[in-house]
């Protein structure tokens, strides 16, 4: 299954993707930078900035846990959080998942799926995942 992430809500899309992965499907999400996060820009930025900064707060010498800044990696981490990743079933399911910024050449001619229950419609506040990544310092 190849999904175009543009115009989808991140949490809803991640839950659908994780269900498909647990059913044994391979899932690819394109345009990860255009996935929407609901809520105000300030709240969303503060939430992700706190996660990124957590590494230096907890132990300055150890520098962990790591939290991604790139939009495709943030989405991968969100999907991983919805899988039983510490069990072999979840780990195997996660291996069948890929996320990309933009559309790579190998997917140019492929028909992309939309997830209707995850569409960003009639919601007043929201920000793109790519914009949050740029605020966190990602270069993509």
UniProtKB/TrEMBL annotation:
Keyword presence, Zinc-finger: no
Record's keyword annotation contains Ribosomal protein: yes
Entry keyword set: Ribonucleoprotein, Ribosomal protein
Superkingdom of origin: Archaea
One GO process term, biological-process aspect: negative regulation of translation
Gene3D superfamilies: Ribosomal protein L13
Functional summary from the UniProt entry: This protein is one of the early assembly proteins of the 50S ribosomal subunit, although it is not seen to bind rRNA by itself. It is important during the early stages of 50S assembly.
Subunit composition and interactions: Part of the 50S ribosomal subunit.
Name recorded for this polypeptide: Large ribosomal subunit protein uL13
């Amino acid at each position: 299954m190849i999904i175009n992430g543009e115009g989808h809500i991140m949490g809803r899309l991640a839950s659908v993707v994780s269900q498909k992965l647990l059913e044994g499907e391979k899932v690819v999400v394109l345009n990860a930078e255009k996935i929407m996060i609901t809520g105000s820009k300030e709240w969303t930025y503060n939430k992700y900035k706190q996660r990124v900064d957590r590494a230096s707060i907890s132990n300055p010498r150890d520098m962990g846990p790591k939290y991604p800044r790139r939009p495709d990696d943030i989405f991968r981490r969100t999907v991983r959080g919805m899988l039983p990743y510490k069990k072999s079933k979840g780990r195997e399911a996660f291996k069948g998942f890929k996320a990309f910024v933009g559309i790579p050449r190998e997917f140019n001619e492929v028909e992309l799926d939309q997830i209707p229950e995850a569409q960003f419609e009639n919601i007043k506040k929201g920000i793109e995942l790519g914009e949050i990544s740029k605020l966190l310092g990602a270069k993509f």
